[in-house]
């Protein structure tokens, strides 16, 4: 759904309580659309989520969203999606770490909550589109199909966490900030001009459902203490841990290894094995990944036919790298032009063709560079 639709639409604006979603709702209303604001209650105990003007999920965020809706002059409601959020995002997050993978809960929330549960409910109630404060663009082609593109301001682009949206969802998505070539300070200045009290509210970050920011403590409380070994590539025990779920591929700090590597260089987490509760560490060059297999592909439009050359993004705030990719059955096979590091099962890989988002998939396995025949980094 393009932001410059020729006819007024019934728009449901998801208002987190932050400045971006408030300005997005205001712009949609100013464009002549019939806008209704909604705040998603995602916790049965909102006090347990982050507080302190984080812009996501707390009681104060709900109040900030309501005040913004009042200033804009649009109806406002709070919808309880706590149970759905717990099942689709929080429990998925815990299960992925338990299995030795590294999930992205914000991407999962966009897929399962904002553009599945919320959109389905909006369409059932007669709304035409869901509006959010994401920085991304939906482009409508002459044949009526839609494409998802990076935001005009690539520094603020959030298309990576929207790479899970399919063509049906894109047809009902509205991102009024996507064409904004302005700084965040200018967005805040616009909010202030509009009389929105959230103009100076800090941005949200980290994981909203982990109140104190202690991911390892959050997981330990749910998965329990599970002592295991930290070993080197040869299987030699270097130390111990309280739960393999507390580590991520590429991690350097907090390994609690009592003695340095023989060459004196830092060691990194190379592998996490939930089967034997073992964490393997080694040198940085052992992290070099040359290829991967990804599952559960989701296409932002028609699925590509045959192998193709794309750029790929592997983290929400990461850069792009050139790849070749091909769909083989239900799996996406990806080869990197140059080795990359910090690639972990559970992460999402998002493919781009220029600024267009082709689609995304969840990394299942990786292939490391053979250091016996290839030079080290």
UniProtKB/TrEMBL annotation:
Q: Which Pfam families match?
A: tRNA_Me_trans, tRNA_Me_trans_C, tRNA_Me_trans_M
The protein's site described by Interaction with tRNA is found at 134, 347
Q: Where in the cell is it found?
A: Cytoplasm
Record field: catalytic activity: S-sulfanyl-L-cysteinyl-[protein] + uridine(34) in tRNA + AH2 + ATP = 2-thiouridine(34) in tRNA + L-cysteinyl-[protein] + A + AMP + diphosphate + H(+)
Give residue ranges for domain tRNA-specific 2-thiouridylase MnmA-like central: 217-282
Which parts of the chain span the membrane according to its record?
A: none
According to the UniProt record, where is the region Interaction with tRNA? 156-158
Instruction: Name the Enzyme Commission number(s) assigned to this protein.
Output: 2.8.1.13
Q: Name one GO molecular function term.
A: tRNA binding
Chain coiled-coil ranges: none
Q: Residue limits of the tRNA-specific 2-thiouridylase MnmA-like C-terminal domain?
A: 290-363
- Active site at 109, 208
Write down the PANTHER family for this protein, in alphabetical order.
MITOCHONDRIAL TRNA-SPECIFIC 2-THIOURIDYLASE 1, TRNA 5-METHYLAMINOMETHYL-2-THIOURIDYLATE -METHYLTRANSFERASE
Which NCBIfam families does the record match to this protein?
Answer: PRK00143.1, trmU
- Family, per the entry? Belongs to the MnmA/TRMU family.
Question: What is the name listed in the Swiss-Prot or TrEMBL entry for this protein?
Answer: tRNA-specific 2-thiouridylase MnmA
Taxonomic classification = Bacteria, Bacillati, Actinomycetota, Actinomycetes, Kitasatosporales
């Amino acid at each position: 759904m393009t932001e410059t639709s020729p006819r007024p639409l019934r728009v449901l604006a998801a208002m987190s309580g932050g400045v971006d979603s408030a300005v997005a709702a205001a712009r949609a209303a100013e464009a002549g659309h019939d806008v209704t604001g909604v705040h998603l209650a995602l916790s049965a105990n909102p006090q347990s989520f982050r507080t302190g003007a984080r812009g996501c999920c707390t009681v104060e965020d709900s109040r900030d969203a309501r005040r913004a809706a009042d200033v804009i002059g649009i109806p406002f409601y709070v919808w309880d999606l706590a149970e759905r959020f717990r099942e689709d995002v929080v429990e998925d997050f815990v299960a992925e770490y338990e299995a030795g993978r590294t999930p992205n809960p914000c991407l999962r929330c966009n897929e399962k909550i904002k553009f599945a549960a919320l959109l389905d409910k909006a369409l059932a109630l007669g709304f035409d589109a869901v509006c959010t404060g994401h920085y991304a663009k939906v482009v409508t082609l002459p044949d009526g199909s839609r494409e998802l593109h990076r935001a005009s301001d690539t520094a603020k682009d959030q298309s990576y966490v929207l790479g899970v949206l399919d063509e049906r969802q894109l047809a009902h998505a509205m991102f009024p900030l996507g064409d904004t070539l302005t700084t965040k300070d200018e967005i805040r200045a616009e909010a202030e001009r509009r009389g929105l009290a959230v103009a100076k509210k800090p941005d949200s970050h980290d994981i909203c459902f982990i109140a104190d920011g202690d991911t390892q403590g959050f997981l330990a409380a749910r998965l329990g203490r599970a002592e295991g070994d930290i070993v080197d590539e040869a299987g030699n025990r270097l130390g111990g841990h309280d739960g393999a779920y507390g580590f991520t591929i590429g991690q350097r700090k907090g390994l609690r290894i009592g003695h340095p590597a023989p060459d004196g260089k830092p060691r990194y987490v190379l592998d996490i094995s939930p089967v034997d509760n073992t964490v393997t560490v080694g040198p940085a060059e052992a992290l070099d990944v040359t290829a991967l297999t990804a599952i559960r592909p989701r296409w932002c439009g028609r699925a590509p036919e045959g192998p193709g050359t794309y750029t790929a993004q592997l983290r929400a705030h990461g850069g792009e790298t050139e790849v070749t990719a091909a769909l083989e059955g239900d799996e996406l096979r990806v080869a990197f032009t140059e080795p990359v590091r910090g690639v972990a099962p559970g992460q999402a890989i998002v493919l781009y063709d220029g600024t267009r988002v082709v689609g995304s998939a969840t990394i299942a396995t990786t292939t490391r560079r053979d250091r016996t025949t290839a030079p080290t980094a």
